[in-house]
Amino acid sequence: MTTPVASLVPGRVEEVHVQHGDEISKGQLLGLIRSDEVGQIESELISKLLELEAERKQYQVKMQLAEKIYERKKLLLEEKIGSRADLELAENELEQERAALRAISDKQSAATEACVQRLKLFGIERHEIDRVIKTREVHHLFEIRAPRSGVLTMRDADPGEIISAGKTLFIIADLSQVWLTAQLSERDVSKVKCGLSVKAQVEGYPNLEFPGHLNFIDSHIETETRTLPVRATIENKERILKPEMFGTLTIETGKASALFLPSKCVQQVGEASVVYVRKSGDFYERRVETGRSLGDNVEVLSGLNEGETVAEEGSLKLLGMALQRLSK
Question: Which partner from 22, 85, 198, 279 sits 20 to 30 angstroms from 35, CA to CA?
Fold first, then answer.
């Protein structure tokens, strides 16, 4: 299973900390990208917030003055010196200043949210915006971190390279399990379903079998080959299997007892299949009925019992001797 790691931030590659084939841990720093475009957005946010903060201070001064005027008009009214009209006018001016302060807060929230939405397009998280608001500092460097553990199977980034947003820089593969895709004969389609146990063999390790299970069956037969694409998840805890290896997939559709012989034990005499069974130190020809072939082995349906010894390497020679006797 592979996971591409892309940079949503456009810019220049500043540092790359990994090499092809490295073991990668989740969260590990893979590289740094310098993005002036993202830095510009953060700079605009800081400028807007500073501007609004200056306005806020002005309105706070005005509101403090309005509060003092209101309190004085209220006291004059209580002492029968001022008029209620003057008090109501002062109260109205105070509310206007309070409303102006609330509007500044709304503008700050709107500016922040607009910046958040713009930076989301580059994969920048909210905590980065919070950092900018708190520190008033612009970061031009952005980290590319591994989303999962695995092996780095592709690196397409070098320091100094200019990259566009969305470019895949790395691919991380979890090789503890691998996918093996295979083509299933049309006649066997009805025998399989997802979840069945499978065994895989690859050319690089012909004597090893790798267990797994079927996890995908395509919905369409390929018209040219009359086969159905299937895929299995194969256990690979020792990391023996590598991407792009060729192999064969055996799907366990059920269990049944059967007698199999190496194919070289069975010889053809006309249309008959024969084997040479050892008895009392000699070999005797016996006709058998054969069935399925499985690799280098053939199934014996009848004519032979389990435990009997048959000739393997010399069976062809025994056939030749038998034919010579017949010709005489």
Answer: 22
User: Does some domain include residue 114?
Assistant: yes
Task: Give the integer Cα–Cα distance in Å for 104 and 120.
Answer: 24
The token pair at 149 is 């553990």
- For the full predicted model, state whether its pTM sits above 0.70: no
Query: In CATH, what number is assigned to the domain containing residue 320?
Result: 2.40.420.20
**Secondary structure of 172-213 in HEC code, one letter for each residue:** EECCCEEEEEEEEEHHHHHHCCCCCEEEEEECCEEEEEEEEE
Q: Which amino acid is present at 294?
A: L
Pair 211, 199: CB distance under 8 Å: yes
> Residue type at 198?
V
Three-state SS sequence of 81-130 = CCCHHHHHHHHHHHHHHHHHHHHHHHHHHHHHHHHHHHHHCCCCCHHHHH
Considering the domain architecture, whether residues 64 and 209 belong to the same structural domain is answered as: no
Backbone angle region of 195, left / alpha / beta, with phi > 0 → left and psi within -120 to 50 → alpha: left
117-122-124 Cα angle (round to 5): 70
With tokens 């399925």, the residue in question is 292
Q: What is the 8-class DSSP label of residue 25?
A: -
> Which of these, 10, 32, 14, 30, lies nearest to 22 by C-alpha position?
30
pLDDT (tens digit, 0 to 9) for every residue of the chain, 328 residues total? 789 999 888 889 999 999 998 989 999 999 999 988 888 888 888 888 888 889 889 989 999 999 999 999 888 888 888 888 988 998 999 999 999 989 988 998 888 888 888 877 777 778 878 888 888 888 778 889 999 988 898 999 999 999 988 899 999 988 888 889 999 988 888 889 999 999 999 988 988 999 999 999 999 999 899 999 999 999 988 888 888 889 899 998 877 778 888 888 888 888 889 888 888 888 888 999 999 887 788 999 999 998 898 888 766 666 556 554 544 4
Indicate the number of domains in the chain. 4
